[in-house]
Structure formats: C-alpha cells, structure tokens
Design brief:
By secondary structure, this protein is an alpha/beta fold. It is 33% helix and 14% strand.
Length: 206
C-alpha cells in the first residue's frame, strides 16, 4: 500500500508501517482427518460486506465440479455486520448461500478469542476481497495458525504473504478478483490431501 501512495507522488519517508498485534498464546493444530480425508475445508473470516468478495467466493464455490468438490469439502463463513449492509447486498448474499446448499454455511459473527477454535475447523483461509486492502489481520492470523491462504490478486493480500518467512505453511494462491481466479484456487484446495508446506513461500498464479 505504501508503494501505491508513493506512485501517486507522496514521499516514501513520510510513511511508517505498523503491523496489527494479535494474540499468540493459543495456536490451532491442524484439523483432524479420517484416514481417507482431504484438506478440503475452506474458511472466510471477517466483515460481511460487498467489498470483501463473498459474492465472488460463493459463485466460485458453486462452479467447482461435483467430482472435484466431493462430499467432504465445505466453505465456512465466519463474519458479522451483515445486518448493517444495504438491503440489496443482504438479499444477494443470502440467496447465494442458499444456492450453495451443503457446500457453504454462514455461521455469523465471532469474538477474537474464539479464533483458535474456529481455525481448528478449516484447512485453508480464503481472502477474496474485490478492493484494495493493506494488511488484513486475517492473513496474520492464518499464518499464526499454519493455514495456507487463497487470495485474490489485489493489493496487500498477495504481496503480504510473499513477505512472510516464519513457520512452515506460507503458500498463497492468487487469481483475478472473479470466479475464474478464486474458483481455480478452490479446485486446487479441494483436490489436495495436505495443505502446502515448506519453509519458504511458494506463490502460484492461477
């Protein structure tokens, strides 16, 4: 985001990057799997607004072929503030969730102290925003809990994961902010037996 302001002509020396602080006292272990299970549980965390890309994500989830999605894959949507959104967006979101059927479930708002328990339920964190964001807190939380990220290729959501070198799981899937990009990433995740691993980031353009 600093680079974007600098490109607009503002002096770089005027900017300072301060990361958000998060509670590191509890770290969620990997989700337990049956012997033939897959890492196919996707999680969205954050505000439910029209700019966060949930319409894109739900549409993409519905486009994944049945034989790829399977019976064990699911999208878990954890987020609040839906009641304060424009009526048109609320109706659209609720329609898309209903259309997704068993593939997606909206759990509503959560408290920050509940994050470790919610992370235990998912294998991947999806950040499908359709607007520029600087350093979303959920990316730092995903890193803390060892969950790989599927993100749209806009703003800090892709550059931020590439800069992180801590821990074992540091892979980001990126794509355009539309069904093609997020859908392709979802197909990669739903077909995976294990989340990506390795000490260095391994971004993939989809």
């Amino acid at each position: 985001m600093i680079d974007r302001y600098v490109n607009w002509g503002l002096p770089r020396a005027k900017f300072t990057l301060l990361e958000n602080g998060i509670d590191t006292t509890r770290v969620a272990p990997p989700r337990p799997l049956p012997p033939t299970g897959r890492r196919s549980r996707f999680g969205f965390f954050g505000q439910v607004t029209e700019f966060k890309g949930l319409q894109v994500l739900l549409d993409a989830v519905g486009r994944v072929a049945d034989d790829v999605w399977g019976d064990d894959a699911a999208l878990c949507i954890f987020g609040g503030n839906l009641e304060n959104q424009p009526e048109a967006f609320r109706n659209s979101f609720e329609t898309l969730v209903e259309k997704a059927g068993r593939r997606a479930k909206f759990y509503g708002s959560y408290r920050s102290e509940e994050m470790p328990d919610l992370m235990r339920q998912v294998d991947w964190v999806v950040v499908p925003s359709i607007w520029w964001e600087n350093s979303p807190l959920v990316i730092q939380e995903a890193f803390l809990h060892g969950r790989p990220i599927i993100a749209s290729d806009i703003g800090g959501r892709y550059t931020f994961p590439r800069q992180q070198r801590r821990g074992s799981h540091r892979q980001a899937f990126r794509g355009p902010p539309g069904p093609q990009g997020v859908g392709a990433a979802a197909r990669c995740g739903a077909g995976a037996d294990q989340p990506p691993a390795g000490g260095e980031p391994a971004p993939r353009a989809l």
